[in-house]
Design goal:
It is a single chain. With about 450 residues, the chain is an all-alpha fold. The protein has 24 helices and two strands. It is globular and about 75 Å long.
Length: about 450
């Protein structure tokens, strides 16, 4: 009896109480999970983008030299990969055999050596296994963010995550590590839902230290959690505590900073690149994203009854605004997914627009040329894909490739802005529902 109670608690902890107690829902979840994992395993060994190799090269350099400050802009991420690589190297000979390749400084030579290795598929599987672990944890965490006591809708959220094309592409074809910071962000949001305001902001601060993007939702999370005037100051400071701690650590231990290199990095520069020049010169410009971002924050500020679902809607709006207005790399799209899949349950039309976004992203990959198109398939046959004619020369035979891509980029922006409008309408419905509940409680 005690064992049964124990396993019931474990099941409720993993699958949520609503799904675990509904046998039909639990069976459906198993089917979704196994199918989703099978899809992931198909892509796991065969594809990667060059940045995956760079990530593990930095980790190998850290292990080889013991220099913990080797990558100050991605310090925590580098530590996670370094520890993981050290463990995998100790267990699996395939990684140990390729370790010398990871230490080669010349990026082209190391890339060719890696792709031509006889155990490249095994190594790629082990490299991306770390992201699979975080992916699985995230898919069960996100079940807890919304639709309490509604197992059917929770199942839909799970389905939209596990079969999401962006998740599968970014983690298992493009092979980028953003899922680690997404995991930490989801924990912060779950704590916010449970009204653990200080822990929620501190954990989000850790996510900011992992990756730049969580800082975009920090203001709305603070506005959602504040209960007094002093909370504005305390929570705002807690939100930047992670990056501030890294700044102090690096100043003290390595004699270099983190904040100013971050402000000069691509991530921040992309926020400022879209601008409207009012007059000639550098002193008469409006940064378009910053202006739109302020409007979004003020809109959220003036909502009197801020429910958790409204918070999630505004997080989606912020990331869609970023994707729609600013230049972005393909892996950045993963940041909008946790919020969109919850909204899909209420507004199915957004799901179709999201698939259109993914299709357009496949065209936008042309921006980066061979590196993110034909070279992604290099592990299968690196000689064939190196000498295969790239997509840009083919397009150039008929039309200007830059204009071609920018047309599709403009369509992508239009779709993203329309999705923002639909989410805003959904937010208005949520506000009305909150007011109705409030009126019922009064009566």
């Amino acid at each position: 009896m005690a064992a049964k109670t124990f396993f019931n608690k474990i099941g409720s902890l993993i699958f949520t109480r609503e799904i675990f107690q509904d046998k039909k829902s639990l069976k459906t979840l198993y089917r979704y999970f196994l199918t989703g994992i099978l899809i992931r395993l198909v892509f796991l060994p065969f594809f990667f983008q060059r940045d995956l190799l760079s990530t593990y090269q930095r980790a190998a350099e850290t292990i080889s030299t013991g220099n913990l400050g080797y990558d100050n802009l991605q310090f925590i991420s580098n530590m996670i990969h370094s520890v993981y690589l050290f463990i995998m190297r100790s267990i699996f000979p395939a990684i140990n055999e390729l370790f010398s390749t990871l230490l080669v400084k010349d990026t082209w030579i190391s890339w060719l050596s890696f792709n031509s290795a006889y155990n490249v598929f095994t190594t790629l599987t082990l490299f991306k296994l770390l992201y699979l672990i975080f992916d699985i944890v995230c898919m069960f965490l996100i079940l807890r963010l919304s639709f309490d006591n509604k197992p059917e809708k929770k199942l839909q959220v799970f389905k939209f995550w596990i079969f999401n094309p962006i998740i599968i592409f970014v983690l298992y074809i493009f092979a980028r590590h953003d899922i680690i910071a997404v995991f930490v962000t989801l924990i912060a949001l779950l704590l916010a839902k449970k009204d653990r305001k200080y822990w929620a902001i501190i954990i989000l601060g850790l996510a900011v230290a992992l990756r730049f993007f969580p800082i975009l939702i920090l203001p709305v999370l603070v506005l959602y959690l504040v209960r007094s005037k002093k909370d504005y100051i305390i929570l705002s400071l807690a939100g930047v505590s992670g990056i501030a701690a890294l700044e102090i650590l690096f100043r003290f231990c390595f004699g270099t900073g983190v904040i100013f290199p971050l402000l000069n990095a691509q991530h921040f520069e992309y926020l400022l690149t879209p601008r409207l020049d009012l007059v000639a010169g550098s002193h008469g410009s409006i940064f378009i994203f910053i202006a739109v971002y302020i409007v979004i924050i003020l809109s959220f500020l003036h909502i009197k009854k801020k429910s958790f679902d409204i918070l999630l809607n505004y997080c989606a709006i912020i990331y869609l605004a970023y994707l729609g207005i600013c230049f972005f790399h393909p892996q950045y799209m993963i940041w909008v997914v946790p919020f969109l899949i919850i909204i899909f349950v209420r507004r199915k039309s957004l799901l179709y627009y999201h698939w259109v976004q993914f299709a357009l992203l496949m065209v936008l990959l042309i921006y980066w040329g061979d590196l993110v198109t034909k070279y992604v398939f290099a592990p299968i046959d690196h000689k064939y894909f190196v000498y295969l004619t790239g997509i840009i020369p083919i397009i150039e035979r008929f039309y200007d490739s830059a204009a071609f891509v920018n047309i599709f980029r403009s369509i992508f922006t239009g779709i993203s802005l329309w999705m923002i409008y639909l989410i805003y309408k959904d937010t208005k419905i949520l506000q009305m529902n909150e007011l109705e509940i409030k009126e019922i409680e009064k009566s």
